[in-house]
Design a protein that fits this description.
Layout lengths: L2 E7 L3 E7 L15 E6 L1 E7 L3 E7 L2 E3 L2 H6 L9 E5 L7 E7 L3 E7 L6 H5 L6 E6 L2 E6 L3 E7 L2 E3 L2 H8 L11 E4 L6
Antiparallel strand pairs: 1-2, 1-3, 3-6, 4-5, 4-7, 8-9, 8-10, 10-13, 11-12, 11-14
Family: Belongs to the beta/gamma-crystallin family.
Organism: Salvelinus namaycush (Lake trout)
Function: Crystallins are the dominant structural components of the vertebrate eye lens.
């Protein structure tokens, strides 16, 4: 079970909200979030309500101010919703595809991949099928840039998904590295 506490002010001050599950809209609990503390588990936090907009992965630790979080790669300055990432102890398996709707070259991953170009000579990834485990996909190689949380399921068209995230460069989603969410949440 995960637990995250959000605070309206920096350095864990002001009104707070404790969360131990998904929260699609934090506005009824607080007007803004300027710091947070993850006491256990892992969470994805979102820029907009209903798990929309830019995303940022948070593991156990203290995040005393949004400016520091932004220097760690977070691309937004207020948290509006969050999703708890369940623990997964089994195997990991994901198929990535060069084109949308599972078209083009297909590669199967069972471990982290810091560059699909270096590892598979694949220049683009436009769809995927997550069969086992929970994954983070990154816009750039070496686990950099904007990220997206992927749980088991089919993701046929990253371009359509980017509309809900506020879009990425050229209005389309493009992932170049992938990481398993496993012992990161201990």
């Amino acid at each position: 079970m995960g637990k995250i506490i959000f605070y309206e002010e920096r350095n864990f001050q002001g009104r707070n909200y404790e969360c131990m599950s998904d929260c699609p809209d934090m506005s009824s609990y607080m007007s803004r979030c300027q710091s947070c503390r993850v006491e256990s588990g892992c969470f994805m936090v979102y820029e907009r309500n209903n798990f929309m907009g830019q995303q940022f992965f948070m593991r156990r630790g203290e995040y005393p101010d949004m400016q520091r979080m932004m220097s760690m790669g977070m691309m937004f300055d207020n948290i509006r919703s969050c999703r708890m990432i369940p623990m997964h102890r089994g195997s990991f398996k994901m198929r990535i595809y060069e084109r949308e709707n599972f078209g083009g070259q297909m590669m199967e991953l069972m471990d982290d991949c810091d560059s699909i170009m270096d590892r598979f000579r694949m220049s683009d990834c436009q769809s995927c099928n997550v069969m086992d485990g929970h994954w983070l996909m990154y816009e750039q190689p070496h686990f950099r840039g904007r990220m997206m949380y992927m749980r088991p399921g089919e993701y046929r068209n990253f371009r359509e998904m980017s509309m809900g995230m506020g879009g990425m460069s050229q209005g389309s989603m493009r992932f170049m590295s992938m990481k398993r969410i496993n012992d990161m949440c201990n």
